[in-house]
Amino acid sequence: MQAPIFTPYHIPPLFIATAFTFGSTLPFFNQHYAIPDALPPYIDKYPPALLVLATQEGRTIVTGLVMFTLYYQGDIRAVDKFLGVVGGVLGVVDLYVCWKAGFPGKGLLRLAYGMAFSAWGLGGLSSGGQ
Asked: Where do transmembrane segments lie in this chain (predicted)?
């Protein structure tokens, strides 16, 4: 397989892969700065939670790298399937965690983003509906 010819339909999965891969590196460089975006601010006072954050972000980096790998192998249908599953699952998990932490608005927004990307992927839009 070879890298596909780029089309604008590839922008959503490449955006997510980039955000997952590079955006998730922040806790490795400045955990305290990353907390407000990822977790409630009071977590910053509990150092073991920062280790959990770094572990979680490591897994998110791997998710982004898998998407890039599938894309550059030219398997756009696999990218769509992966985006569909990951977007939906992470959207629901984010909603649950944010809701339990007392941030229901942030959770609902993350759910909406996750479901939008999931619908894109499950609809096969990156691969042209093939």
From this structure: 12-29, 49-70
